[in-house]
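Hi X.,

You mentioned you wanted examples for the new student's onboarding notes, showing what a folding record looks like when two proteins sit in one file. Here is a clean example. The first protein comes first, with its sequence line followed by its structure tokens.
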Amino acid sequence: MVSFTSDNASGVAPEILQALVEANSGPAMPYGADAITQRVSARLAEVFETEVTVFPVATGTAANSLSLSVMVPPYGAVYCHELAHIHVDECGAPEFYTGGAKLVPLAGAHGKFDAQTLSAAIEGAGNVHAVQPAAVSITQASEAGTIYSPAEIAALSEVARANGLGLHMDGARFANALVAGNHSPAELTWKSGVDALSFGATKNGALGAEAVVLFKPALADTFAYRRKRGGHLFSKMRFLSAQIEAYLRDDLWLRNARHANAMAGQLASGLGKISGVGLCHPVEANEIFARMPEAMIAGLQAKGFVFYRWGAPAACEVRLVTSFETDPKDVAAFVSAAASLAG
């Protein structure tokens, strides 16, 4: 079996496994009072070139939902893309953690919405009969595998600021977005107006570790209590933090992301040359969405390639995701098999 289902299908980077073994030696203070967790906070401040407040959690859903919980009241509205993970794939967790806030999905090409669309959605939404505008959430890289540029983020932030809204970034694939462009972590976040980042690691080599990075100090006032109440304050926090520390050490996170992106680029390039195959979105990170003939999809599956169908069945659309573990030979084999099934 060769899997292109998800970067979640990948294993754990050896460097991170070794860090867990090392963290398992001797006692450590619980609930985040350990030395590793303190070092992670300091390291992320270096990465983002500013003071930050850091809260390790185990899942991206927790990171997103808890981030929004400190930005949005129960009667608030969170503006997000109609394909956003918080809207489509988190089983109502953001609504639950915020106490009932409403997600307001916005349309936009290639997984992104723009400042004009956001402004139009907010306009006239302040009456007592409607949910009150409270936050904006964007995904980086987007659910279509595309990247928000700093200029695009800044434009959204300008609209958000003008209306008193916070700006959250779901960065489950933040490393993939970062290496796709010539920008620093700071430029892609707080310098463009982001208030809170869900900093992903699991999809890019961790066992199960994410971090909420808050750039706006006031958001941290109640976060610790909400994390505890939500069941995400780990007693042995060092084992989450050890993963993030190893993830950041020697730019492992960037190297892993570069490999995943490069494999996606090779896959997209090969598929783009095959008759009957069309790419649905620009391939900017490590996700590919393609239209294929039904016979080709069935043939690839019969040959042992595993991937998800995506969108309406009639569209014959599939999603292919590469990871830090993707073997170039598997990419070549998939392209070769697809070419043999063309027509």
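Then the second protein repeats the pattern, sequence line and then tokens:
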Amino acid sequence: MRKYYTRPCNFYYGNYAKDLITNKKALSLAGNPNIAFDQIEIFQRKKKGITQSNIYPITKIKILNKEIKSKVEIDLKKITLKRKSICGIQFDRPQIMGVLNITPDSFSDGGLFFDESKAYEQANLMIKNGAKIIDIGGESTRPGSRVIEENNEWNRVEKTIIKLKKKFSKIPLSLDTRKSNIMKKGIECGVSFINDVSGLNFDKKSFKIINSKKIPFILHHMQGTPATMQINPKYDDSLLDIYDFFEQKINFCIKNKYKREFIIIDPGIGFGKNLDHNLRIISKISTFHSLGCPILIGTSRKRFIEQIVTKFDTPDRTGGTLSSVLYGLLQGVQLFRVHNVREINQGILVFNKILNTN
């Protein structure tokens, strides 16, 4: 467990960001010249459950005490490091991952795309509407869900994966699964990414499969299992505890000769988190840039939106989803996992255009 954590903050955008970077008044975020920052927030863990934080201009880093300064300088190298493209996905602009649940019981769209032809039509529609990755899942991981048999899960997704790879060879497919055998079969059928919501904890063979193929994967955080995760989840500090989880897993991967640049991190909004946990993570999500990996966030249609808006809730929660996506965009999040691709893409395009107009 760390004692100090570094969060870039006080961001600038567009040509103004470029000018600040050129004049050495700010630093680029993740090597993106369109986002700059000139302050950092330093979190310090005190005793159990207590965190202190202070904000400093980057010009004041040199006056920090030796222990803190050393840690911050290491973090800054990762924060400013340019993120390399993965399977053709560029991380110098916001990208959309479209959700394709081929299940009868997912939390918001269960059964809608269970039929093979409907699943293909939905993927086709999401690609036309701007999705750069399609995330295919054959097992629901909604709160309270149970594990299903491997053959059942694979039978749900196999034909759709094959058909999409044939029709859209340049669109990367992500396979949302916790099982190593499903991962292996998916990779053999042309899947480009593995998205394991258990963070490689469900099946101990998962990392071996991913590492042997050197296939990129999404390192997702979940406390507990889908069946238990929303039963009174607890953290000392949700943001920093999840950071520690990511750092430990990334170090394990690197130790086993797997490259950091193949890892995308996802803090797992709604996976073993209550409303306060989710808000803490989202509001301070730029902290995860100091891990040196692209950041993905999946807030689409999540229950935390209903908990905030109460009587103004809607079935697809597009408004709440879009607002959380745009906040993430301001914090330099690179990848957004959503259901309503067209609407979210429209919002990102307009917002990003305004943001980068000086």
